[in-house]
Write a structure and sequence with these properties.
Elements (H helix, E strand, L loop, with lengths): L12 H7 L1 H12 L2 E5 L5 E5 L2 H10 L4 E2 L8 H4 L8 H11 L5 H27 L3 E3 H18 L7 H21 L11 H27 L7 H7 L11 H32 L1 H13 L8 H5 L2 H13 L6 E5 L3 E3 L2 E3 L4 E4 L1 H5 L18 H6 L16 H13 L30 E5 L6 E2 L8 E2 L3 E6 L6 E5 L1 E2 L4 E2 L1
Parallel strand pairs: 2-8, 9-13
Antiparallel strand pairs: 1-2, 3-5, 4-9, 5-8, 6-7, 10-11, 12-13, 14-15
Helix pairs in contact: 1-2, 6-7, 6-17, 7-11, 8-9, 9-11, 11-14, 12-14
Length: about 500
């Protein structure tokens, strides 16, 4: 099997630690193509693929043969036995218990909450605009996602716990990523290394917050508002038996929190980034939203009418999928791409490189939402675009809720408009393989305001413009500022 050479005993680990896991895999993909083996420590093997045919076999055709094995162990202290990490009969049970929480009626109740959070954010932006404040758009996206998750998951404002919970999740994900990269050379969590101590502190913080919220929800009783937590607490099997324990609730809540918070914030930030790069696309998004003619909060059916906006989000998630790679372990021998895969192999497949595959995408590095017209989607390999994975493990209704959250944030005044200026590519992952956001700073300056879509007469919003980027750091930086209409230039 093709692949790079490694070092005795430690395989490719020194090279990965030096280059970063994303850069290493990217180089190997360009050198060896869709299928190669990464040398590892000991007798284990990592087999990489980015071809939709192989991914379809892993996620659909022979899904029972590819399970989430030891490769997910570094995530289990954080996510527990939630839907992302659980397997087998327990996963089937949890999936069955969580499914009703994402019924369409419940999603309908969530959308106005999401819209209200966006309105609150825009009000805060307007107040800060008057002060000439600089906005960190990823921090703003994280704050918005945190509020949405707080209200939809728990029915409460998490602002007083936002800093602690966000820091705990970010730190634990970062360290879990480092542990995944080091594989067999990772020391057990019981060993008091600085990283392990930070990881354990972050988990304690998160557990204290989540268990406190679960305790308050149990005391509130069944008459409390129907939040996702309440719906999960009331979920029951068809047969005899209790619902979820506090531990199971904790695992599912943290799993949904990470998916709804980190993932949404990343996608919104990258959407800001690409719309700032492409003012023509931004103008079409504004026009489509204005065409809805809304006079109040949108319903989920209104969001479904945002067909071009959906195409924009799909293209953003093609170029910057929230999870750039996943792993599975084989139960028994199999054949992928005409190559024998032994049992107990560690298989890595990448949405990012699949989404950039030149055999399935013309000029794959270019931002073109029109790739996602219904006709083009039907003509394309169904596994060529898998931003949220695919196959039976995908929670369709939860995915719909996440997409609704993204589009509920598509307020035209919340999108920075940027004139053409050069910028770095903005890698989707850092050295440890953790998702990376573009580092965007927005500076609002006074200018004639424009009417917001669907706003009553006389109500106005703010518009965001960009100047040139600062390319002094590895993470691409954009400085966004208000446009001076009097001079007709960017300032």
């Amino acid at each position: 099997m093709p692949g790079p050479a490694g070092y005795p005993l430690v395989g490719a680990l020194p090279t990965i630690l030096r280059e970063g896991v994303f850069e290493y895999v990217e180089r190997c993909w360009r050198d060896y193509g869709d299928f190669f083996q990464i040398p590892t420590a000991g007798r284990s093997r990592i087999i990489f693929t980015a071809h939709p045919d192989a991914i379809e076999r892993i996620l659909h055709t022979r899904v029972d043969n590819y399970y989430k094995g030891k490769g997910y162990d570094p995530l289990r202290p954080l996510l527990g036995n939630g839907l992302i990490t659980s397997t087998g009969d327990f996963w089937v049970r949890q999936r069955k218990l969580t499914q009703p929480a994402f019924h369409m009626d419940n999603l309908r109740r969530m959308v106005p909450v999401m819209a209200r959070c966006v309105e609150d954010m825009l009000g805060e932006w307007e107040a800060r605009r008057r002060r000439g404040a600089v906005l960190d758009l990823h921090a703003e996206s994280m704050h918005l996602a945190q509020r949405i998750v707080g209200f939809t998951l728990f029915g409460m404002d998490l602002s007083d716990r936002e800093a602690a919970s966000s820091r705990a999740v970010t730190e634990s994900l970062e360290i879990a990523g480092q542990r995944m990269n080091r594989g067999a050379l990772t020391l057990p969590l019981s060993v008091p290394t600085p990283a392990n101590l930070r990881f354990r502190r972050a988990l304690r913080t998160l557990d204290e917050i989540v268990y406190d919220i679960i305790g308050h929800a149990r005391k509130a009783g069944p008459e409390a508002q129907p939040t996702l937590l309440r719906l999960l607490m009331e979920a029951r099997d068809d047969g005899p038996g209790d619902g979820m324990s506090d531990q199971q609730l904790r695992d599912e809540i943290v799993t949904h929190y990470v998916a709804g918070h980190e993932t949404t914030a990343l996608i919104l930030t990258w959407t800001f980034w690409f719309l700032g790069q492409h003012p023509d696309v931004y103008a079409k998004v504004r026009e489509e939203i204005a065409g809805l003619g809304l006079t109040g909060a949108p319903a989920i059916e209104d969001l479904d009418r945002l067909t071009y906006t959906r195409m924009v989000f799909d293209e953003v998630m093609r170029l910057r999928p929230p999870v750039w790679a996943q792993t599975r372990t084989t139960r028994e021998d199999d054949v992928l791409m005409a190559r024998r895969i032994p049992a107990d192999s560690f298989v890595m497949f990448s949405a990012y490189f699949c989404h950039h595959h030149p055999a399935f995408w013309d000029e794959p590095s270019e931002f073109r939402p029109e790739r996602f017209t219904p006709e083009r989607v039907r003509a394309r390999h169904r596994y060529a675009h898998i931003p949220f994975s695919a196959g039976p493990r995908v929670h369709r209704q939860a995915l719909r809720a996440l997409r609704a959250e993204h589009r509920a944030g598509a307020d035209p005044d919340a999108i920075p408009n940027r004139r053409a200026a050069g910028a770095g590519r903005g890698d989707p992952a850092d050295r440890d393989g953790a998702p990376r956001s573009p580092d965007i700073r927005a500076l609002a300056r006074p200018r004639p305001l424009i009417a917001r879509a669907g706003a009553p007469a006389g109500r106005t919003g703010n518009r965001w413009f960009a100047t040139a980027p600062c390319a002094a750091t590895h993470r691409t930086r954009l400085r966004l500022s208000g446009a001076s209409r009097a001079r007709g230039t960017l300032v």
